[in-house]
Amino acid sequence: MPTIEPTGQVLGATVHGLDLSQPLSDADFASLLRALGEHGVLRIPGQRIEARHLRDFSLRFGPIQTGMADRFRDAAVPEVGILSNIVEDGRPIGLADAGQDWHTDMSYTATKGFVNVLYAVKVPMRDGKPLGDTLFANMHAAYEGLPVEVKQRLAGMTATHDFNIFWERMRTRPGSARAPLTPEQRAKRPPAVHPVFMTHPITGRTVLYCNPGYAERINELDEAESARMLDFLFAHQLQEKYLHAHHWTEGDVLIWDHIGTLHNAIPDYRPDEPRMMLRCQVMAQQVFDPGFQQRWLKAA
């Protein structure tokens, strides 16, 4: 049975006693699922695994998203994506994963993201310190810290999340060669609507599900009030007291909960400082299913 060592901060715990090259027992999975809800970010250090092990471990949490371009996927295990700044023969071997600012993966789709599972293959170092931290914000705590009048005002309201917000932000950065999304491309990623306040499927507590990366409008408010409220929510949820930084070590497997956290990957490393992660993006069809919850959360 794994042991869970909390960071003592607002998020995060280290999981000891797991070898992810071996199948995960039902009891261990139930323990991890409960810890994920409680701590939001789980680090499993010291792993020496292949892409197939990462896939098999990730599939315990639900179906894996497969939208990444083929050239950024493991050729033998296409469910596993490659995040990297490494260039070989003039071509990047992976998708850049830093510089997007604060967001929640896949909130712009009707089926939300559930967890990201990353395996650190190469971590850039400088002066003996790791680079490329991933920052997290706790959305359980952010909801609980909202003024009562804001909770009452927004109860039952929804927000529209749109991929094009992220795309336009990246496109207009200095040096970007991105073109605007075509109508056909936008049609493939239509906006999605989700509650501003959501019941977390593991903890049963309320979270603030409204991130600056993709949320564009609170639908039940007029445009001006929506803009003011979003500005307030985004500033509120990124207060220092809600934040946690993960410092990567090669061999880390990191799991984080998209429903209960936001994240931001810090691009503080140069092109000649190689970074490489293997990733599985798990979608949330399964975790909201009552049968899944009855089996795994009651067991936990």
From TrEMBL:
Keywords: Dioxygenase, Iron, Metal-binding, Oxidoreductase
Cellular component terms (Gene Ontology): cytoplasm
Claim: Electron transport is one of the keywords in the record: no
Protein name per its UniProtKB record: TauD/TfdA family dioxygenase
InterPro entries from the UniProt entry: AtsK-like, TauD-like_sf, TauD/TfdA-like
Domain TauD/TfdA-like: 4-280
GO molecular function: metal ion binding; taurine dioxygenase activity
PANTHER family listed in its UniProt record: ALPHA-KETOGLUTARATE-DEPENDENT SULFONATE DIOXYGENASE
Biological process according to GO: sulfur compound metabolic process
Family named by the database record: Belongs to the TfdA dioxygenase family.
